[in-house]
Amino acid sequence: MYLANSRAADQATRRVGGTPRWHRVPGNVLALGVVSLVTDISAEMVTAILPLYLVLGLGLNPLQFGLLDGLYAGSTALLRLVGGHAADRWRRLKAVAGIGYGLSAICKLGLLAAGSSVAAIGAVLAVDRAGKGIRTAPRDALISLSSEPETLGRSFGVHRALDTFGAFLGPLVAVGVLWASLGDYGAVFVASFCIAGCGVLLLVLLVKDLRPGAASAPSLSAGEAGEAREPVPLRTMIGLLTIPSFRRCCGWAAALGLVTITDSFVYLALQRRWEIESTWFPLLALGTTGSFLILAVPLGRLADRVGRWKVFLAGHAALVIALLLICGPATSNWIAVVALALHGCFYAATDGVLPATAGPLLPEHLRATGLALLQTGQALARMVSAVLVGLVWTVWDLRPALIATTVALLLVTVAAAAFKPWEVKR
Amino acid sequence: MRKLLLGLLGTLVLVGGGITYVVAARGGGPAANAQPVVTGEPITLSPGTVLFRNAAAGPAYGQVAALAAPGAPRKVADLQCDRFAAARGTGICLRAKPGSLPPLSEVLVLRPDLQVRHRQTLPGTPSRARVSPDGKIVSWTLFVTGDSYAATGFSTRSGLYEVDTGRLVKSIEELPVFVDGRRYFAHDVNYWGITFGADGNRFYVTLGSKNKTYLIEADYRSYRGTAILENAECPSLSPDGRRVAFKQKNPDSTWRIAVLELASRRVSYPPESRHLDDQVLWRDNTTLLYALQRGDKGSDVWSTPISPTGRPALLIPDATSPAIA
Question: What range does the domain containing B221 cover?
Answer without folding.
Answer: 81-324
